[in-house]
Design a protein that fits this description.
single chain, 438 residues, alpha/beta, 6-stranded parallel beta sheet, 14 helices
Length: 438
């Protein structure tokens, strides 16, 4: 029954917070995160990720655990609302646990399940008979039942599909997208038994306006998620390769894509730097699982190699443009506009702009980063780079438009350029008279 669902969301980042906020409009929800600073920020009604507007967050926030209802020992009358906490005891009365932690890769591009395992241990310490744990983090097929559930069993002493149950409903959050919010994106659901699948599906169906799709098994749902981003990665790799070819042929790639796009079934992909928490990471999860089974995924890994090479390629193209204009490369002052992984979003996770910056530094250039969206402390912590939130008051030998923030579209680049400066447009959105573009 709806009024019996008491939901704990584990991990309050770009995925967890929007989901917790949405569920809190109908259910009692406790959002749990080990980052105490994050919890304090949320309880003050602020979200630095900008995924949930402060006013919307404040509408659902409650100051006391909604699982606990005074003078009601049955606890079935818990009221809706979102309570945020870093204390594990705050989620002990939940009966549905939803895990929304990151699933990154290590320096060798191998899946790193550490956050997922730690979250599973947390749930294992509090889960009770009859409870359901649902995973949303992107993984390879089999990770939920083979890697995560055994951790819960070991910690809790309970048996899977006898004492507690599982589900998988892959996240489909698009950071920075205010149009396709979580409730407006159709949700894939699944359960560890057919009956639990229906429970999970009905739970999400109660808040997801766009509807749900109940997959027959957890593995099917896991596989569906991981191929969504693998497909996008391969398509972008294809147009990135086209950009390299057409550049050699002195043909405007974007003009070619515009012409080809007049055909009704031509897919509208554009060349670019492929970063972020999903597209640049998820294909490695599928590749890892395939290799464990003795299959070498040629297309998936070829697409990854090509996309991972684009940062160096952009830097090389800029150098060529500078040489043509007789601009000295060594000690040249270069302005990089944007450090986040996508436009109008503060998310710097796995941003490939850092690959461009590293290559420019290898050429001996002096790089200045300007991004009004990025958190300077986060950039420093993640990449040991200095980023400015205020437009520099100087002129540069070269400018790279790396991210298409709205602020950059209105920017007068002439005030930042030396007389002979090079402008390179990674996003292909500036006037075609620029010196170079991807």
């Amino acid at each position: 029954m709806k009024n019996q669902h008491k939901i704990a969301v584990i991990g309050l980042g770009y995925v967890g917070l929007p989901l917790a906020r949405l569920f809190a409009t109908k259910y009692p929800v406790v959002g749990f995160d080990i980052n105490q600073k994050r919890i304090e920020e949320l309880n003050s009604g602020k979200d630095f990720t900008l995924e949930v507007d402060d006013s919307i967050l404040q509408e659902v926030l409650v100051q006391e655990n909604p699982f606990i209802v005074e003078n009601d020992k049955s606890q079935t009358n818990a009221k809706q609302g979102l309570y945020c906490s870093y204390k594990i005891e705050s989620i002990s009365d939940a009966n549905i646990y939803i895990i929304t932690v990151p699933t990154p890769v290590d320096k060798n591009n191998r899946p790193d399940l550490t956050p997922l395992i730690k979250a599973s241990e947390t749930v294992g310490n509090v889960i009770k008979k009859g409870d359901i744990v649902i995973y949303e983090s992107t993984v390879y097929p089999g990770a939920t039942e083979d890697d995560c559930i055994p951790v819960i069993e070991e910690k809790s002493g309970l048996l899977f599909n006898q004492d507690f149950f599982g589900g998988y409903s892959p996240e489909r959050i698009n950071p920075g997208d205010k149009q396709h919010t979580v409730e407006k994106i159709l949700k894939v659901t699944s359960g560890s038994t057919p009956e639990i699948g229906k429970v999970v599906d009905n739970l999400y169906k109660s808040v997801i306006i766009a509807g749900t799709h109940l997959a027959p098994t957890i593995k099917v749902a896991e596989a569906a998620k991981v191929i969504e981003n693998s497909q996008r990665d391969i398509n972008i790799a294809f147009v990135n390769e086209l950009a390299k070819i057409f550049n050699l042929l002195d043909i405007d790639t974007h003009a070619v894509l515009e012409a080809a796009g007049t055909k009704w079934n031509f897919l509208p992909f554009r060349p670019g730097l492929v970063g972020g928490h999903c597209i640049g990471v998820d294909p490695y999860y599928l590749a890892q699982k395939a290799q464990e089974k003795g299959y070498h995924p040629e297309i998936i890994l070829a697409g990854r190699r090509l996309n991972d090479s684009m940062g160096e390629y952009v830097a090389t193209q800029l150098v060529k443009c500078m040489i043509k204009k007789n601009i000295a490369v060594n000690n040249a002052n270069v302005l990089v506009l944007g450090i986040t992984f996508k436009e109008n979003c503060p998310d710097v996770r796995n941003t490939k702009i850092v690959d461009v910056i590293a290559a420019l530094s290898d050429y001996g250039m002096i790089v200045t980063i300007f991004d009004p969206w990025a958190n300077m402390n986060e950039v420093k912590h993640e990449y040991n780079l200095e980023s400015k939130n205020v437009l520099p008051q100087e002129k540069f030998d070269a400018i790279i438009l790396g991210v298409a923030h709205n602020e950059f579209l209105k920017l007068d680049l002439d005030i930042l350029k030396k007389d002979n400066a090079v402008v390179y447009d990674v996003k292909g959105i500036l006037d075609r008279s620029v010196d170079g573009r991807l």
